[in-house]
Amino acid sequence: MDRVSGFRRGLRAAAAYVRSAPGTYVWLLVLFLTTVALHHMSPAFEEDFLRQRSTNIHELSQNPVRVLITSAMWIDGGHWIPYAALFTVFHAQAERWLGTARWLAVCVAAHVLATLLSEGALLKAVRDGIASQSALNTLDIGVSYALAGVVGVLTYRLAVPWRYAYLLVALAVYGVPLITDRTFTEFGHFASILIGLACYPLVRGCGKAWNPKETLAALRS
Predict the structure, then answer these.
(1) What is the CA radius of gyration of the chain?
(2) Is the pTM for the entire model greater than 0.70?
(3) Per-residue pLDDT for the chain (221 aa), expressed as one digit of tens each?
(4) How crowded is residue 192: how many other Cβ atoms within 10 Å of its Cβ?
């Protein structure tokens, strides 16, 4: 009976956690459904289907609002479980802390602005002859820009000095690939985390910053 009671308490705690971050888990459910749909498509159809929902330069010039929305509803590669973990660690924490409206504002800002910055840089590279014309129609979907933006804004969730350590790690995670790979996608990721950091005005009034040391002390006592 103790195990059954513990299992039920665990389920109730998990359900309460999901309810505390509704936007995160509704988005994650949409990504699950679209990922299942991708697994039922042929490779040729999938590529064409996703390209029409991609935030590449061609699609942005035709219908920017549509592709900026639809590109965030699909995962390139079809691996949903890693995103479920990342959404729970970062998005859910940010939504619980900021509230759904402010969390969504950070996500939208990072997704839209980083997309426009990276694709604008790519367009310049094409016009300067650095990148080929085929780059105008590349496949560019996913939720990683919004995730990077949330990683950035969560810097303010931590108290000093933990904040600086977190920020250093986050900048390294997104900065090193930009230096080594030098792709426009990595540029977009790094821009996203800076956009998240620029969302500092949204964190005002969201409570005291979390101090892990205080939490550990409370658990020991």
Answers:
(1) 19
(2) yes
(3) 466 676 778 788 888 899 999 999 999 999 999 999 998 898 889 888 998 899 999 899 999 999 999 999 999 777 899 999 999 999 999 999 999 999 999 999 999 999 999 999 999 999 998 888 888 888 888 899 999 999 999 999 999 999 999 999 999 999 999 999 889 999 999 999 999 999 999 999 888 898 888 777 767 76
(4) 30
